[in-house]
Amino acid sequence: MKIINIGILAHVDAGKTTLTESLLYTSGAIEAPGSVDQGTTRTDTMFLERQRGITIQTAVTSFQWHDCKVNIVDTPGHMDFLAEVYRSLAILDGAILVVSAKDGVQAQTRILFHALQVMKIPTVIFINKIDQDGIDLPGVYQSIRDKLSANMIIKQNVQLSPDISIMENMGLENWDTVIADCDELLEKYIAGEPMDKEELLREENRRIQSVSLFPVYHGSAKVNLGIRQLIEAVTDTFQSPTGQNSSELCGTVFKVEYANQSQRLAYLRLYSGTLHLRDSVALAGKEKLKITEMRIPSKGEIVRTEIAHAGEIVIVPCDSLRLNDVLGNKLLLPRETWSDNPLPLLRTAIAPEKPEQRERLLNALTEIADTDPLLRYEVDAVTHEIILSFLGRVQLEIISDLLVEKYQLNTTAKEPAVIYMERPLKAVSHTIHIEVPPNPFWASIGLSVTPLPLGTGVQYESKVSVGYLNQSFQNAVLDGIRYGLEQGVYGWKVTDCKICFEYGLYYSPVSTPADFRSLAPIVLEQVLKKAGTQLLEPYLSFTLYAPQEYLSRAYHDAPKYCASIETTQVKNSEVIFTGEIPARCVQEYRNDLTFYTNGRSVCLTELKGYQIASGEPVFQPRRPNTRIDKVRHMFNKILPSMMDL
Fewest CB within a 10 Å sphere: which of 171, 276, 440, 483? Predict the structure, then answer.
């Protein structure tokens, strides 16, 4: 049986979850469609999802149409969950992008369409809610052309009054977009030669698969109008790139979740080969995995199975599988798994309202962080606070609500702050010698630091011969440097520099690796103090679309948010800006734009990297280390006097 995996993506309230229910119902997978309002849908099952009207976690369901099985991956639609959207997109064979006939192309629609293009996912556009009053379909078409792509082909003729009717559109005039991009067809058209329908369909399909043409269909998911035609289009159009004829196994993990009783489930897409119950499966870089239980989506349910074929989505109870793990042969992946997850940009301290629930909170955060690579947490060694690092404010709100709903934990969180980094300002070196006070360690270490261009990261080189200083001492120095890089002059992680181990001395037999491990971060701190460091903060590159009448305000307001505009373009009735902005300012800038443009602006952002921070330096308290802190303080007293000499 042909198996395809499709995603359904949409702006909030465009009807994505209702469409999923309608597809299941029309195909016969379920006896009655669930209701978003009543919380009876197969996908948005969390109370938070029903309460907020948005999808938070990726969900999977399926239906069968003739000889084709369709797995539906219902993806989140909010920007703070785009990392999960990208992971889900990587395993898809195609996507349905839902546009509300009432609202047209909205801000999030453009963001999701951009993601689909980045990931090269063939896409069908479905105009939903055509049964509502006051629908202007030509206006919606123009909105799609202007804000998404002019390379669209309207597949149906729609009559809205007195009764709604949807008919297949096969008129030759509708094929202009297909003909214009194919030299062979264009020559026939100019010469007045008859056009073969099959030839047109083949070229149309080629363009759809190459993500350069987007067919448009119509309907209303709420009343199951136009859904049968959409199913036919999806099953005919989308093709699975799986190796149906390959016996070698290949699959990738795209989702991890904790079910009831904290059972950990890994969702994987099987690209080739066949997976059997009790198989031992090779994992890239890991020990083999024994398959003891498998489940697959089937006709609106999740069912147990003993065999899964290429193309299938398989759910495996497992404690060891991680996001993006590859089962079997990695070379058989049809596209790279999406691993470019944005770094967490914000951090805050979170605490339970009842102090006795602290351990429960830590356990809950462990589970949540396991399913979301954009969430990290640690316990501050100085304040003992639980520190959360995350991407956006909505993500923090969802985490707080999830702790209440799933874990019965009420929490409080401080105002989020930006995560900074540090970079040395100049090249310097420093040596601390053995038996020279206040050094209490049986080791001499000399280090040098050299600034590198922004975005380079940290490089390390040892110029001390392993023949002179054995590998265990060398490893200890590197361990100490890694520890020292976690806290620069201002207390932030150090990056964009080269560290060289220039000099080392030991006394046999009293010197131990522990002496070198303890001394290395002290030497590194003295080097960084001599070099001086500059604070770096995360920046985003942005593309801003705004109505043309707001050109002046959008341009002149940018400096208020430390944003720099690099290019300006006027297209149709919009102005398009590109530039960069500090991550700490983007939400306020976006909110302001949304307010004065009445929601008609769109700001697409991508993490650009860390740039030099503006404003006063921001300090972060250092974590204590009982073994080396007294020695650190002694050297910190000595260094200023040495620098004055």
Answer: 171
